[in-house]
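Annotated sample (chain length 357).
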Amino acid sequence: MNAKIVLLPGDGIGPEVIAEAVKVMNAVAELYGHSFEFDEELIGGAAIDATGDPLPDRTLAACKEADGALMGAVGGPKWSDPSAPVRPEQGLLGIRQGLGLYANLRPVHVYPALIEASPVRPDRLAGVDLLVVRELTGGIYFGPRREGTDEALDTMVYSAPEIRRIATVAFAAAAARRGKVTLVDKANVLATSRLWRRVVREVAAGYAGVELEEMLVDAAAMALIRNPAAFDVILTANMFGDILTDEASMLAGSLGMLPSASFGEGKIGVYEPVHGSAPDIAGRGLANPIGAILSAAMLLRHSLGLADEARAVEGAVEEVLAQGARTPDIARPGAKRVGTGEMGDLIVDALQRRKDA
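Output written by the structure step:
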């Protein structure tokens, strides 16, 4: 297969982890007979510095022509003034709107080798394998807003078609998994959440084999820690999904472990680790590249249709973790500590062994 991949390294540790994901993808290309062309473009703070725009027109155009995009992270102290008219985060919101990326998939898998890295009790982590389906282009992040000296307004707006299309993604995913969707909302307070319930129930009627559970977001936040294995697919609105997936990262041991994929109506998918730019460790070789590498595996599976190759990457990650290698964020005392580049090298070596086996 020949494929064109846009790289959006961004800021902070973004370039470091994306470099390791590219290293793994190049190994996949060599081992499985593919050709991946990489085109690096600007986003976030790096784009502001170079062009004054957190999402240059060239970046968006390149993404529209590509088979997939792999993104690192944006932001940092240099651009942290929330009152600034131009901010790195606007690049994220802009690419989601520009590409129509309304569905964000965030899998949370607890590796047996990393149970000790989680602050959650080991007995509560057995069997945890859940998927958060987050609506990505609506809600309070995109609604009408006003900001004044003494008063500010952010508005959560959703339409039935927006809810229906993301609910369909969640139910289709659950039908291929364990057959359960948990709708997380705040329907006891919010009118938008009550609309979510009505529309999601309509969608659920078309999936006879999938159970629908409804849960308020505060109860869901507690249940994610108390009984996380009870969740299969979590369906939720933009802001709730943003918060809950950061919480769920603690099940896996670190934000550095989690990948994500964002899809829309077109062919393009944008894949990125869930973590932020972590400017405090940028350039020090301490970042965990696994979230970015697993995001590349999702790109292989969902945008390129290379399911065997994706499974090989995921298996290589699990093998390396089982052998005890740990970046600092997931290392306990006495663990075999490795840096960003060494973790990528170990995963490439494991890929080679799996191919030779």
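Annotation: The two ends are 23 Å apart (CA to CA).
Annotation: The chain has two domains: 1-101+256-357, 119-252.
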